[in-house]
Amino acid sequence: MNINIRLIIFAIPLVVAACDAIGPDKSRDRGIDAKPLTELKAGIWVDSEGCDHWIIDDGLEGYMSARLDKYGKPVCSGVAPPNVATGPFKAGTQIFDPTRPSEHVTFNR
Amino acid sequence: MTRLFFKRFATALGRALGAAALAMMVVAVFSHGASAQNTRKFEGEIYRPGVWIDPDGCEHWAMDDGAEGYMDNHLKRDGTPVCHKVNTCAVVNTDQLFATDRASINAANRKRLEDFFRKAGAVAYGINGHTDSRASDEYNMRLSLRRARAVARIAQAVGVRVASVRGYGERKPRATNATAAGRQQNRRVEIMCYR
Predict the structure, then answer these.
(1) Of residues B63, B68, B86, nearest to A70 (C-beta)
(2) How many structural domains compose chain B?
(3) Which of B30, B56, B85 is the last residue of a domain?
(4) Whether B42 contacts B31, CB under 8 Å
(5) Of B3, B52, B72, the CB nearest to A38
(6) How close is the nearest chain A Cα to the Cα of B190, in Å?
(7) Among A4, A72, A76, B27, which has the minimal tally of Cβ within 10 Å of its Cβ?
(8) Cβ pair A63, A33 in contact under 8 A
(9) A93 in a domain, yes or no?
(10) pLDDT in tens, A36-69
(11) What is the domain range of residue A23?
(12) Which residue has the higher pLDDT, B121 or B95?
């Protein structure tokens, strides 16, 4: 029963997305929590080198891009241990997340 | 986790498709004007991106095609990112900090830097040394790194986290090296604040 509900909830955005074709302009999130992508809220995910990536959970879509300094070098700030995502990366969406939260960790810095 | 994996897979796929699309466009451009027998038709889809600006002030390409999201750094052709308000929280002119060709910091300046690092409150700091264009490139690379390290040692002594220490010598001027005023601006140590 629980699984069925999850499947249904997961399917809703797919159905909505299928309703109308998206044109060449991919700069907006349409349907549920519609907004221009300039409003995405990011957190930091730290890779196994200890370097930072912007991570964004925007409901159905996920985004990731390297955090670089102005000279193009990776930023390895030590904001979290390797393989940890931190910060408000799930803050930009109202869509219920059908996946179970992964393992939570606490850390000092 | 599976979801994240899915997303990363989707991003990788998106990049691969993007590369393929780019290759097609390149072929299309170069084949333009070629004789009919050499012309081949390809298909592409228009993916016009939005621009997302990260909290450091740098641009990323962002696209949502209705189901998947894609993102990548907006880089110039030289590989450096396109950034706006950059998170440089201090630029210290090295004339105030160091004697000519030296990398040692006197007590008064050490105190100033210690106060700065105690108050700035960032998660970590990046420290970049720069020189003007006098003396050789190689010498300037070494001098700028020694100076950046001198500043980094003060940060570490205060107990803050130093993410990186780099010397760029004369290679990243922020003003012209043709005038005395420009050269003075180029002799600097930049402190980046990562929050």
Answers:
(1) B86
(2) 3
(3) B85
(4) no
(5) B52
(6) 11
(7) A4
(8) no
(9) no
(10) 888 788 999 999 999 999 999 888 889 999 999 9
(11) 2-86
(12) B121
